[in-house]
Design a protein that fits this description.
Helices cover about 20% and strands about 30% of the residues. The chain has about 400 residues and is α/β, with parallel strands linked by helices. It has three domains: about 60 residues, Nucleic acid-binding proteins (OB fold (Dihydrolipoamide Acetyltransferase, E2P)), CATH 2.40.50; about 200 residues, Vaccinia Virus protein VP39 (Rossmann fold); about 90 residues, no CATH class. The strands form five sheets. An eight-stranded mixed sheet has the order 7-23-24-22-21-18-19-20, with helices on both faces. A six-stranded mixed sheet has the order 1-5-6-4-3-2. Strand 18, helix 5 and strand 19 form a beta-alpha-beta unit. Helix 2 runs parallel beside helix 8.
Length: about 400
């Protein structure tokens, strides 16, 4: 079914929202607010439908032609490449505001869109970790947006140049997925893939470190961090540095604090780089490879690594906590995590969120637990995509 629609806003998830003649909400991929578009509706339910732009009838002045040939061929990796770069940040700020209003029922004026040289990473070449999948004829590629089909690629403009140059060398069985990571500091490259595909990846140069035990060193805010191939790390070194700085702005009390917690701490990024003046740090992490990285990275600090889920952690009354920094995955902290972290009664809790809807949900849960948001900083760490990062400061009521 095809519909002619005029969307009026961009929403979390990256689509533009419009209404059909019956008032039903339609989420349109590839549209920009204010445009008149012809959309192919692929999924329709009672309350909403989803669709894809097939023709732009009235073009927004903010529309841009995707500079990447692979995106034009259907690659789903850069879903906002059709929006001019200067407009992307403003759109992300509005999405955060709308999520806080609609889901969290919070004061949208909390959003502090700090526009300065450090608020966004470079438009291209910023990703130091990418995941590709084997496509037809052994070529690697990225999946189409919302589909399982693979678009073969020979380069990637948002990947760090060493990773982009590696792509045409690879010969990968169809369906096999491989994660590649490089270090800006050293130039080292790691590669990891599922063991069931152990004979499916060919063409990697001999200097690439392969497998679960492979690791590299990245330098963030003056600190060397070991990052294993199987450990989570930020999208790139630029992103990690900007987040460390934003956490410092959100919690100046970290300077000289007695005990701080890095929840969902991964390799200990914030424990190392944002909590360097804290007397004691505790990292809570559930991934095995990240445990060992965090232990290595904090070997010279008074520190403790809690191996397990945040929602199952119980604070010790004899070990008071001053500040918590939490950087959960996309679903957010959730009820168990909020219960555990607020039981420690820190004066300040900083939430690093990669999803504006989960931020709003977590803000509601934290408010119920006695923590009020004071400021939200929006960062654009994923240019050319709808993804947005926020750093929010919460304070305990009565502190």
């Amino acid at each position: 079914m095809q519909l002619t629609l005029r969307p009026d806003r961009l929403v979390a998830g990256g689509d533009a929202m419009a209404r059909d003649d019956d008032g039903r909400v339609v989420f349109i991929s590839g549209a920009i607010p204010g445009e008149l578009v012809e959309a192919e509706v692929g999924s329709a339910k009672k309350d909403y439908a989803t669709g894809q732009v097939i023709e732009v009838l009235e073009r927004s002045p903010l529309r841009d032609s995707p500079s990447c040939a692979h995106r034009r061929a259907g690659c789903g990796g850069c879903d906002w490449m059709h929006i001019q770069p200067a407009a992307q940040f403003d759109a992300k700020v509005e999405i955060v505001r709308e999520s806080l209003r609609r889901v969290g029922r919070l004061d949208a004026n909390l959003v502090e869109a700090i526009v300065h040289a450090g608020s966004t990473v470079s438009q291209f070449g910023y990703r130091t970790t990418i995941r590709v999948v084997g496509g037809p004829d052994g070529m690697v590629g990225f999946r189409e947006q919302g589909a399982s089909e693979v678009v073969p690629v020979t380069s990637c403009p948002i990947a760090e140049s060493k990773l982009s140059r590696l792509l045409p060398l690879l010969d990968v069985d169809e369906g096999a997925e491989i994660t590649l990571r490089t270090s800006v500091a050293t130039g080292a490259i790691t590669a990891i893939w599922d063991r069931k595909y152990r004979k499916s990846i060919r063409g990697l140069p001999s200097e690439v470190h392969i497998g679960e035990r492979a690791w590299l060193i990245e330098r963030i805010a003056g600190h060397d961090l070991r990052v294993s191939a199987g450990s989570f790390f930020q999208s790139g070194a630029q992103a990690a540095e900007l987040l460390v700085a934003a956490v410092g702005r959100a919690a100046p009390e970290l300077d000289g604090a007695g005990h701080a917690i890095d929840a969902y701490g991964g390799v200990g990024l914030f424990a190392v780089a944002a909590m360097e003046s804290v007397g004691k740090v505790t990292v809570i992490e559930s991934t095995k490879s990240s445990w060992f990285d965090a232990e290595f990275n904090l070997a010279e600090r008074e520190s403790k690594i809690v191996r397990g889920e945040v929602g199952r952690w119980a604070p010790s009354p004899s070990d008071p906590v001053d500040i918590i920094v939490a950087d959960p995955a996309r679903p957010g902290i959730g009820k168990p995590g909020v219960a555990s972290l607020t039981a420690a009664t820190p004066a300040v809790l900083v939430l690093v969120s990669c999803d504006p809807v989960s931020l709003a949900r977590d803000a509601t849960l934290l408010a119920a637990a006695g923590y009020s948001p004071e400021r939200v900083e929006v960062l654009d760490l994923f240019p050319n995509t709808h993804h947005v990062e926020t750093v929010t400061r919460f304070v305990r009521n009565g502190s």
